[in-house]
């Protein structure tokens, strides 16, 4: 029996009844107002693409179903691939080749769904009875007798007593208040649609409970299957920020059968709102819950307002402490899970070996492969312990690039030996430790795949990025490294893909290369239709889709996504106990304090010290940053009677202001740009002048800690690896002598 190709074939017209075969053919019928009891079942079957109306927007729910129409319904559910073959005809005396449903009746008879009468007829146009309905459906589906009581006064000696009992005892059909079943009563279109929808949903639930994913997939339409493989973002709808489940979002979820969504800070107002939002999103998901993911790396990439403000991965790298990395992963997961999120696109396993990397930088743990591996594995463990999926990134490695794949297509030209010893090392270790989701990089690796294609941007030949490379994803990741989990792409809105490849081509190529989930397609509806068409046309094998969907369902079950019993009230009541809890804040503070690293010092032990009644000038590129440092300095130094003033780097009066200071905090922040092209000259000028005057100062690195490469003769410097409040507060405390700078620089600067 083959149910796996439901929903992709054309329509059959018979007796003025349209049997629609495309998922896009779902209708909203205008004549169900008096059949509301059946509306859900009718619309469910219409969405499956099995039955539609009469072409005028009407379903005619009270119309009778004929025997021919009934078996056609079943054939389109169970054997659609056989409908593509030439008709074999039938031996029934009353089913000529010209009959509208000859092929369907022949297929039904061949597969044992229905039989004729002793006189050699099939009676195709005779109305279907309730007894025949039970017989047809129990033949079509392998049902056993259920647990419900079903004793009808008029079925004991009926020829269909057995199938009626099976259907009734499973709650799929009912009788009447007088204790009868009325087996010979005819069945309406509404009733038949309801019987079918109940049975299919019953079988799906049984498959879910048994975690029989092959069986569940067999009851999923192609639309549903490829929908599981899409994970669009929902930042806006009709130009407005999306913070609730609006009608447009509902429509997308239902029409595209979406299996997941990625959320951003724009979708989040506060913790109660996001918890309500995710709860309501899952209510729209039907019987297969959604992956709801977010980038909560910590540090510079943080989407959740409020809550714990972790200092970031490079700060963890400076501590070198695996236990802290695990604690950071666990508390992050606990907070995400409390908010209804189940995937964290973290940790970053890229090794930031190139100071000129414009996009990774302090998002990485280190430039050392072993340290990245050790802390990455610990973070994965912490997330897993919290019940949140870790999606590590960006395979095979984004740490040694000078192009941001959001803006272009980077090419990494290292040979395979170098890739094995550096870029691939953390991913190999993560695979060996059971990581369950890996995000691809939109980066070309000619040492693995040297194929080139013509760019749609300018007609030039460009290399194929890892996301679209079968050699990288199937050959290297699955076959060589032995990875069996989910492969999710990086965002398809990024220029590394968007500029050079049309979305239709890119989506199809990615799936054929080995991608299980397309993240952030530019147009999710178009991507969905592309995949449906590709399955129909055979350009993506159905077995490829099934393998991806099975991996997705397995992981959803493993992390308890099918267990959705907790009420929204209960979820909201738990928020204050989890989000930003005292224990989480203590981990945040410990990471920040232990990360502070001495970059330069006159005595080799500590930065220049602040003294009583010093006039302190705080210089930064942004006023907001300078004010944050000023506020923290005042709060922490109440016994020093400091006078403070802020200045902005590069402004005309800044040099004069600095010259009058007793102490200068010179804050630098280099991130999301090429370090060698950063505006270091203004900083060097101030450093030279302060050195000439023998002023006390500290260069406070708030971003990528590469200042010592580009700035000379720094006499006092600290790195805190981020301008978040915990990071800068820890740096201020070191300047005031409240704590030592014990961090170790996790990247090479020579």
TrEMBL record:
InterPro entries: GH, Glyco_hydro_3_AS, Glyco_hydro_3_C_sf, Glyco_hydro_3_N, Glyco_hydro_3_N_sf, NagZ_Beta-hexosaminidase, SLH_dom
Classification lineage: Bacteria, Bacillati, Bacillota, Bacilli, Bacillales
Domain SLH: 25-87, 88-151, 152-210
Catalysis: reaction(s): Hydrolysis of terminal non-reducing N-acetyl-D-hexosamine residues in N-acetyl-beta-D-hexosaminides
Native species: Paenibacillus illinoisensis
Family: Belongs to the glycosyl hydrolase 3 family.
Organism superkingdom: Bacteria
Alphabetical GO biological process terms: carbohydrate metabolic process; peptidoglycan turnover
Signal peptide location: 1-25
Single annotated GO MF: beta-N-acetylhexosaminidase activity
E.C. number(s) listed in UniProt: 3.2.1.52
Residue runs in coiled coils: 619-646
PROSITE patterns documented for this protein: GLYCOSYL_HYDROL_F3 (PS00775), SLH (PS51272)
Keywords: Coiled coil, Glycosidase, Hydrolase, Lipoprotein, Signal
Protein name: beta-N-acetylhexosaminidase
């Amino acid at each position: 029996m083959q149910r796996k190709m439901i929903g992709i074939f054309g329509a059959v017209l018979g007796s003025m009844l349209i049997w629609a075969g495309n998922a896009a053919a779902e209708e909203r019928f205008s004549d169900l107002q008096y059949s509301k009891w059946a509306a859900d079942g009718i619309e469910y079957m219409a969405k499956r693409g099995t039955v539609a109306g009469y072409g005028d927007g009407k379903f005619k729910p009270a119309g009778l179903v004929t025997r021919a129409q009934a078996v056609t319904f079943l054939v389109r559910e169970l054997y659609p691939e056989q409908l593509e073959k030439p008709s074999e005809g039938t031996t029934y005396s009353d089913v000529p080749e010209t009959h509208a449903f000859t092929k369907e009746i022949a297929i039904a008879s061949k597969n044992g769904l229905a039989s004729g009468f002793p006189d050699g007829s099939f009676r195709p146009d005779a109305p279907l009875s309730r007894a025949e309905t039970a017989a047809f459906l129990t033949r079509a589906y392998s049902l056993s007798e259920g647990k419900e009581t079903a004793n009808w006064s008029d079925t004991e000696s009926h020829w269909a007593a057995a199938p009626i009992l099976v259907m009734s005892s499973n709650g799929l059909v009912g009788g009447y208040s007088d204790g009868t079943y009325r087996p010979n009563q005819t069945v309406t279109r509404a009733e038949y649609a309801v019987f079918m929808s109940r049975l299919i949903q019953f079988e799906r639930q049984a498959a879910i409970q048994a975690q029989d994913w092959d069986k569940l997939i067999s009851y999923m339409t192609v639309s549903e299957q490829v929908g599981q493989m899409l994970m669009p973002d929902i930042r806006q709808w009709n130009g407005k920020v999306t913070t609730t489940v609006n009608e447009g979002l509902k429509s997308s979820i239902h029409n595209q059968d979406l299996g997941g969504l990625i959320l951003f800070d724009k979708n989040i107002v506060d913790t109660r709102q996001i918890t309500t939002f995710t709860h309501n999103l899952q209510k729209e998901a039907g019987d297969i819950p959604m992956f709801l993911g977010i980038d909560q790396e910590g540090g510079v990439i943080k989407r959740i307002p409020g809550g714990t403000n972790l200092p970031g991965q490079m700060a963890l790298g400076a501590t070198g402490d695996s236990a802290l990395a695990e604690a950071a992963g666990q508390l992050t997961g606990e907070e995400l899970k409390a908010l209804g999120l189940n995937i964290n696109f973290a940790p970053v396993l890229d090794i930031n070996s190139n100071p000129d990397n414009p996009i990774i930088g302090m998002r990485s743990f280190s430039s050392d492969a072993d340290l990245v591996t050790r802390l990455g594995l610990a973070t994965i463990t912490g997330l897993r312990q919290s019940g949140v999926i870790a999606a590590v990134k960006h395979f095979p490695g984004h740490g040694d690039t000078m192009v941001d794949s959001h803006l272009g297509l980077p090419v990494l030209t290292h040979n395979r030996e170098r890739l094995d010893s550096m870029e691939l090392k953390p991913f190999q270790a993560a695979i060996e430790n059971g990581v369950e989701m890996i995000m691809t990089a939109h980066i070309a690796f000619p040492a693995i795949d040297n194929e080139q294609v013509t760019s749609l941007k300018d007609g030039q030949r460009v290399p194929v990025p890892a996301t679209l490379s079968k050699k990288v994803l199937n050959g290297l990741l699955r076959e060589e490294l032995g990875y069996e989990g989910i492969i999710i792409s990086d965002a398809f809105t990024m220029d590394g893909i968007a500029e050079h490849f049309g979305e239709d081509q890119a989506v199809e190529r990615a799936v054929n290369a080995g991608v299980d989930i397309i993240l952030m397609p530019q147009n999710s509806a178009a991507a969905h239709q592309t995949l449906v068409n590709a399955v129909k046309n055979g350009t993506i094998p159905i077995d490829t889709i099934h393998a991806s969907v099975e991996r997705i369902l397995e992981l959803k079950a493993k992390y308890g996504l099918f267990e959705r019993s907790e009420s929204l009230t209960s979820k909201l009541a738990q928020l204050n106990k989890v989000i930003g809890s005292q224990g989480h804040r203590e981990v945040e503070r410990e990471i920040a304090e232990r990360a502070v690293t001495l970059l330069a010092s006159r005595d080799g032990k500590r930065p220049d010290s602040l003294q009583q009644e010093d006039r302190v000038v705080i210089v930064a590129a942004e006023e907001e940053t300078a004010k944050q440092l000023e506020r923290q300095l005042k709060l922490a130094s109440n016994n020093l009677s400091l006078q403070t003033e802020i200045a902005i780097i590069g402004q005309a009066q800044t040099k004069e202001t600095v010259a009058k200071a007793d102490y200068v905090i010179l804050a630098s922040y280099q991130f999301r740009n090429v370090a060698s092209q950063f505006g270091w000259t203004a900083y060097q000028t101030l450093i030279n002048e302060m050195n000439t005057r023998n002023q006390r100062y500290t260069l406070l690195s708030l971003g990528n800690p590469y200042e010592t490469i580009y700035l000379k003769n720094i006499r006092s410097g600290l790195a805190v690896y981020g301008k978040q409040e915990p990071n800068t507060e820890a740096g201020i405390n070191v300047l005031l002598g409240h704590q030592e700078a014990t961090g170790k620089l996790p990247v090479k600067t020579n």
